[in-house]
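Quick log. Single chain, no ligands specified.
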Amino acid sequence: MAFPSGAPLSAQVPALVPGQGATHLPDHAPLRAGVDRTVILSLLGLLMVLCWAILLLRAGSMPTTDFSLHAVDTAPWDPADLALLLALWLAVIAAIMLPAAVPAVLLYARAKRLRREPWVYLSTLVFTLGCLSVWSGCALAAATLAWLLHDAGALDESMAVVVPTATGLALVAAGVYQWTPAKHACLEHCRAPLAFVRTGWRRGLPGAFRMGVADARGATGCCWLLLALALPTGVLNLPVIGGLVVLVLAEKLLPNGHLLACAAGLGLVAWGTALLFP
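-> predicted structure:
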């Protein structure tokens, strides 16, 4: 994450809107910022724990952890199954994306406090809900596609695609995308949350929601093909999900995130090619 060097964040965030001068900071501002950070990190941590609990409980209900042994699942899904599938996909996407969104959420809350606007915690919650609304749309698309693949007999019991070629093609596509200008433009958005807060500030609860949507849209544009890898490999393939969490975080937080994204792209292409041409 590319926080600017030099002046501390508290000296830079108040003048978020052109023409607005710096705000005098009270003596207890550092203490209040520490409390805000603790509260928000605790709530986000609980949400992450909930996501992983859903995944672990669902994965633990599978008859075996060797996904390659699963037979094709041809049992029809009823509306309750589809609702559970949607919840599962939302848990997967949130588990991958939420850790990388933490700096932006904290920065939004800090800016809100420094601008002396009301309802800091409620606005931060609404900002997070804006992010979740984008990820819910992604989960709905993934669940719908999984439903269609299931009806076509293309999924096994772990909800992984049974055709190895599909996994290889998905890996190659994700690897190639890692080198595109669109990927790196979205990655720069993710790595510079202060620039986003400065230029995209919106007041009030509707503004908080819109900012959350805008931030999550940029993050999803950066990682959407990585997220899509959970479809061919299986939404309950926990090693893949864990690897995606690490990769998304590393691209955003490490100093050479852009180079890491390109290197990961080469690795994904090589992996996919090995599956396509064993």
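The chain has eleven helices and no strands.
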